[in-house]
Amino acid sequence: MADLLPAARAAQFQRVLVRIDRLIQRGTNTSSRFTAWRLGIFLTGLACSIALYKSEWYTAGNSALVAFAGLFIAVAAYHNRLEHQIHRLRLWRRIKSSHAARILLDWANMFPRPSEAPPAHGYAKDLDLAGPHSLLHLLDTTVSDHGRERLAGWILTQPPTYEVWSRRRQLVQELAPRQNFRDRLTLHARLAGDEEINGRRLAAVVQHPVGFPRLNMTLLVQIILALSTAVLGFGALIGMLPGYWMFSFGAYALIYFMTDQGEHLLEHAVGLHHEMERLETVLHHLERYAKKTTPALAETCAPLMHSTARPSLHLRQATRTLHAISVKANPLLHLGLNALGPWDLWFTRRLIHVQQSITDHLPLWLDCLANVEAASALANFAYLHPTYAWPEPLEPSAEQNGAHTAVRANRLGHPLLPANVRVGNDVHLSGLGSIHLITGSNMSGKSTFLRTIGINLCLAQAGAPVCATSFTWSWSRLACCIRVDDSLDAGLSFFYAEVKRLKTILDATQDRTARPVLFLIDEIFKGTNNRERLIGSRAFITTLSNGNGFGLVSTHDLELADLEQDIPGLLNAHFQETVSSGALQFDYRLRSGPCPTTNALRIMELEGLPVSYEKDAGQVNS
Length: 622
Description:
By secondary structure, this protein is of the alpha/beta class. The strands form 3 sheets. Strands 6-7-8-4-9-12 form a 6-stranded mixed sheet, with helices on both faces. Strands 1-5-2-3 form a 4-stranded mixed sheet, with helices on one face. A two-stranded antiparallel sheet has the order 10-11. The chain has 4 domains: 1-110; 141-209 and 261-384, MutS, DNA mismatch repair protein, Chain A, domain 3 (Orthogonal Bundle); 212-258; 392-621, P-loop containing nucleotide triphosphate hydrolases (Rossmann fold). The longest helix is centred in the first third of the chain and has 51 residues, at 4-54. The protein starts with a helix and ends with a helix. The chain has helices spanning 4-54, 58-104, 135-139, 145-156, 162-175, 179-191, 199-206, 215-237, 245-259, 262-290, 295-300, 302-305, 311-325, 331-340, 343-384, 446-462, 494-510, 530-545, 600-606, 613-621; strands spanning 392-393, 406-412, 425-430, 435-440, 470-473, 477-481, 517-521, 549-555, 570-575, 577-580, 583-586, 591-592.
C-alpha cells in the first residue's frame, strides 16, 4: 500500500495538469479571437472615420474615431490581461509538472539547478548529495542563490545543534501542508524571469556609486537658480522687470550640462529596477503570509515585519525613485522637467539614500528569504512523499557517555530509487563501538545500503522526513569511505587515497569531545592484496570499535566474520543472491550472519569469460 501512495500523488498532479492544459487551450483560443477582433475594430474604425470625413460629417467622424479608439483600447487591455493569465498558467503548469517529476524521479523535467559540493567535502560524493541526479537536485525548489546555498548548507553541514534543528524542523512541518504558499513563492519569482534572484549581483548593483562630489551643494545652487529664474521670468512676463531671467537660466543650464550623467544614470536605474523587481514580489509574498497564524513562519519572517526594515516600504520608495529617473528614456519630457527644476539631481540624491537603506537591510532580507526557501524545499519533499516518516532524535539530555548512541530505522529505503524498485531494510545500531560487518555477493546491495543510511541521516539532521516507516537517531558526525577516486593531479593512487580517507575517519573517532561518528565504509582496503587487506582490516575495525563512533563496514573477506567473537559490539549481516534459470537474482534484503555464498565466478561465466564455475568454485571452497 505504501508504494501505491507516491503513484497516487503523481496521478493527482497529472489531473491538475490536465485541468491547466484545458484552461491554457481555452485561453489561447480566446486570445486568437481577440487578436482578430482587435484587427477588425481597427480596420472598421479606420474605414468608418475616413468615410465620414470624406462625406464632410466631421462631428460624426470625430465621434466615430473616439468611440472606436476607446473600444480598441478596452479590448487591447483585456487581451493583455488574458495573455498575462495564460503566461501565469504556463508557469503554474511548469511548477506542478516539476512536482510530478520529483515523485517519479523524472530528472529531465525538474527545474535544473546548479549544485556542487565543496571538493574536499567528506561524504557528498559518496552519498550523491550534490550534482546531477542527486539529493539536492531532487530537493531544490529555491528561487535565489542564497536559498540554494542555504539548502545545500543544511544538507552538507552535519550535524546542527539541537536548538537550531528544532526551529528548522518546526518551520518545515508548518510549511509542508501549505502547498499554495510554496508554489506561489516560486510563481512570483518566475513571473519576473527564469533566472534566480542573485543576491550577490543585487548587492553589487545597490552598492554601485552614483552621483558626484558636492552633489548636495550643486543641488542647492540649482534650486536657487531655478527659483530665481521663475521669479525673474514672472516679473518679465508682467512687465515689471527686464529679461534678467535669461542670466539665471543660462547659469542653470550651464551647470546642468556640466553635471549631466548622461546614459550612465539611466542604465544603472534600469539595471537596479530589474534586479529588485523579483525580490520585491517575493518579499511582499512573505510579508503577506507572515501576518497569518503560522507561528514558525512568523518567527522566521519577524525581521521583515519591523517598521524600519519592511521590504515593501523601502522597495516601493526605490521603485518611485527609479521610475522618476527613467524619464531620461524620453528626451523631450526629460529636458522639459529639468528645465523647470533640477529633476535629475534631486532624484539622484534620493537614489543615493534609497541605495543606502537597501544596502543596510538587504543581508537581513536575503537571510530570511533563504531560510524560508530552504524550509519550503524540505516541506515540498515531505508533501510529495506522505509515507515518509518524520525522524525522532534522541535529545541531548538522553545521551549519557554514548550509552544512548543509536540509529534505529524500520523499512529504510533510498530516496533516489524509484518506489517500485526500492527495497526497505531495518537498521538497529546502538551504543558506541557498535559495528555491523556487511558481507555479500557482488551487486547484492551492500554499497546502496550504506548510502541509504547516510543519505537518510543527512535528511534527518537537516529537518526533513526520511524514507522509512520509523527513524530514531542520536546526533552524529557522518564519515564515509564509499566512493574513492585516485587523483592524478595530487599524485595519489587509489589505495593511497583510500588510506588517507580511512585515516580521517579514524582520527574523527578519537575525538571524544564531539558528537559520535557514524562511519560508513564500503569494501575496506579494496585497493590492496588479500593478505594485507585482511591484516589491515582486522586492525582497523578493532581500533574503530574502541573509538567515539559506530557504523557499518562492508567487505568481500568472509574471514573477517570471525571478528564477531573478538569485538563485543560487532554483528555480522549479509546480502545474498539466488540462481534461477541460469541467471542471478537479488532481493536486496539484509539478513543476519555472514554471507554463505559468493558470485564472482558465476558472473564471469555468465558474461562469457573463460572460467568453469562448478570446477573453480570447488577449488576455491577446498
